[in-house]
Design a protein that fits this description.
Layout (H helix, E strand, L loop, with lengths): L33 H7 L11 H53 L4 H8 L1 H31 L1 H6 L3
Helix pairs in contact: 2-3, 2-4
Length: about 160
């Protein structure tokens, strides 16, 4: 029965019980954790994913790792997309300038024109950045293949 204060309504008391249930290894990463075991067990009913312990494991992994990982992947994707887009936008002006110099019979031909302009230098820089980010993504995928195995990695929709 709630406490009465002047000017306040009476608020009900609700008894609550908090319990800690220890399930060793339920939050382990990779194939050893609870979620992977549930994913690969063919006869697990879908209602299992609504159980409080499974929801708690998902929430814990999202808070500790998943959210940050998704944000970093999104940032790297935007960075790659930006660098590649800028490279593709600069490329036509580099090609046009090279063709003009080659048509005029300029010194060194088109190679001199291609590497001598500031837009060519910028385009090369953005191409290198895009390549570095692509290498990072390939390494990340390689780590996933090593962790999950080729068959599991290839069959995963993610």
């Amino acid at each position: 029965r709630g406490l009465r204060h002047k000017g306040r309504k009476r608020e009900p008391e609700i008894p609550a019980v908090a319990r800690v249930v220890t399930i060793p290894g339920c939050c382990l990463p990779g194939q050893r954790g609870l979620l992977q075991a549930l994913l690969h067990y063919p006869t697990v009913p879908t209602e299992v994913w609504g159980l409080p312990i499974v929801q708690a494991v998902i929430a814990f992994k999202w808070r500790k790792f998943g959210r940050r990982y998704v944000i970093w992947e999104f940032v790297f994707y935007l960075l790659w997309l930006s660098t590649y887009t800028i490279f593709m936008l600069l490329l036509p002006s580099v090609q046009t300038h090279a063709e003009e110099l080659a048509a005029e019979g300029g010194p060194g031909g088109s190679a001199s024109a291609l590497y001598g302009t500031s837009s060519a230098v910028c385009a090369s820089l953005f191409l290198c950045l895009s390549f570095c980010i692509t290498i990072r993504n390939v390494i990340s995928e390689g780590k996933q293949v090593l962790a999950a195995g080729v068959k599991e990695w290839a069959s995963s929709p993610w």
